[in-house]
Design brief:
alpha+beta; 1 helix; elongated
């Protein structure tokens, strides 16, 4: 009974760690794709930066990418 609990707990912790890792990898892939799009000439970029009113530090940056019509 005790080993079953330990195995279940270990599996649960492992799955939680894998879930967090996949989110980090997904964000890295998105950042890589955004960097590649910024280099292209046929892509228009709109960017909005939100700052904290007191400290003036950047809180959020939202970028929108769209293909230019030719």
């Amino acid at each position: 009974m005790k080993t079953r609990f330990i195995l279940g707990s270990t599996l649960a912790v492992f799955l939680l760690l894998c879930g967090g890792t996949s989110k980090v990898m997904a964000q890295k892939n998105i950042d890589k794709m955004a960097a590649e799009l910024e280099k292209r000439d046929d892509v228009a970029i709109n960017s909005v930066t939100k700052r904290d009113s007191k400290t003036r530090k950047v809180v959020k940056v939202v970028k929108s990418f769209s293909l230019k019509d030719e």
